[in-house]
Amino acid sequence: MVKYIFMENKKRFLILIIVLAPLVIGGIVYYTGKNSNPSTEVISTTTLEKQIGSIKSIYQKNGKYYLDIDYVQWISNAKTCETRYGEYNNDYCIINDNSLLRTFSISNDVKVELQTYSHDVSGGYVWNQVIPLSIFATALNNSYVEMHPEYPARNFLYWITLNNGVITNIVEQYQP
């Protein structure tokens, strides 16, 4: 009787093994991934992620740049802002329900695009102006204020793009 049941379900059993084997093996490989410091949690992200927030600091550690950011919600629908929060400015509202700071490493090839950093000859902003990370870090950490007082970098929000947990793009969100 048992032999008969096994033979009937043999196809289903083989299909189940074929489907589950890569998942189990992949999970074991992921779980046993190399970590030279077992007291440090290794977090791996395999997707692109885009978030907006207030950058609190950019710093170097062991020759690599890192960024601390406080995520916010950017709601660009005036009716939603008024209904949910009662107040809004210029058809958008910014909500910060959680002040958790997140730290990410920054790619050596990061692209930093600013909207209000410079003006063209007619006085308008130079949109999507790309600047080096080192200049942006200096501006953000306030040591650049004396040279460029009209760009208070910490007062703005920025969109960051994460690729596998590493920041590859930083874009200033224009706020009228």
Q: Which structural class do you get from the secondary structure elements?
A: alpha+beta
Strand order of the largest sheet: 1-2-5-8-7
List low-pLDDT spans: 23-41
Number of strands: 8
Query: Cα-atom Rg, whole angstroms?
Result: 24 Å
Determine the fraction of residues in helical runs and give it as a percent range: 25-40%
Q: With helices defined by DSSP (H or I, 4 residues minimum), what is the helix count?
A: 4
Query: Strand portion, in percent?
Result: 25-35%
- What value does the average pLDDT take? 75
Quaternary organization: single chain
Order of helices and strands: HHEEEHEEEHEE
| Separation, N- and C-terminal Cα atoms | 77 Å
Overall shape: globular
Number of domains: 2
Largest sheet: 5 strands, mixed, barrel
Describe this structure in words.
This protein has 176 residues and is α+β, with helices and mostly antiparallel strands. The protein folds into two domains: 2-31; 48-173, no CATH class. 26% of the residues lie in helices and 34% in strands. It has a five-stranded mixed beta barrel. It is globular, with a radius of gyration of 24 Å.
Set down the secondary structure blueprint:
Elements: H1 2-8, H2 10-31, E1 48-61, E2 64-71, E3 73-75, H3 78-85, E4 93-95, E5 101-114, E6 129-131, H4 133-140, E7 157-163, E8 166-173
Parallel strand pairs: 5-8
Antiparallel strand pairs: 1-2, 1-7, 2-5, 3-4, 5-6, 7-8
